[in-house]
Amino acid sequence: MTWGGETVRWWDRQTGELLRRKEFPLLDWPVLSPDSQFVAVSRGGALNIGDISRGKFALTLVPLSGGKWLALRSDGHYRGSPGVEKEIVYVVQTDAGQEALTPDEFATKYGWKNDPERVRLPRPQPAR
């Protein structure tokens, strides 16, 4: 496996053939998991965990002031230290433009509820 810029590549050790490649935007300093299934990337003070087999970021860990923290999935589910919901907003694109909503306002307006139990890394894929 090699990486450069925003691309992670897997090679066949015997033939040197490129097996697959995945793009991970804005890689600063990638660190690969021992099984090469996840990549951790520091970006803007946050730590993004990329799921290489799915080619997307799975989880973002954000340190906040006062020792608080936030773990966020791309689908909006979050888990964090007590009171973290007072620190975050949902930004919604509407026909009238963008609107920032607290988690309670977002849940009321769109009938959506955060599920902290969903905020986990995906299970690793079996080796091929």
Instruction: Return the structural class.
Output: mainly beta
H/E topology pattern: EEEEEEEEEEEH
Coarse shape: elongated
**Ends apart, CA distance between termini:** 14 Å
Structural Rg: 18 Å
Estimated share of beta-strand residues: 35-45%
Write the layout of secondary structure elements.
Elements: E1 2-4, E2 7-11, E3 18-23, E4 31-32, E5 38-43, E6 46-51, E7 56-63, E8 69-72, E9 78-80, E10 90-94, E11 97-101, H1 103-110
Antiparallel strand pairs: 1-2, 2-3, 4-5, 5-6, 6-7, 7-8, 8-9, 10-11
Describe the structure.
This protein has 128 residues and is mainly beta. The chain contains 1 helix and 11 strands; from the N terminus they run βββββββββββα. The protein has one helix at residues 103-110; strands at residues 2-4, 7-11, 18-23, 31-32, 38-43, 46-51, 56-63, 69-72, 78-80, 90-94, 97-101. The strands form 3 sheets. A 6-stranded antiparallel β-sheet has the order 4-5-6-7-8-9, with no helix packed on it. Strands 1-2-3 form a 3-stranded antiparallel β-sheet, with no helix packed on it. The mean pLDDT is 81.
Structure summarized in a few sentences:
6% of the residues lie in helices and 41% in strands. The chain contains 1 helix and 11 strands; from the N terminus they run E-E-E-E-E-E-E-E-E-E-E-H.
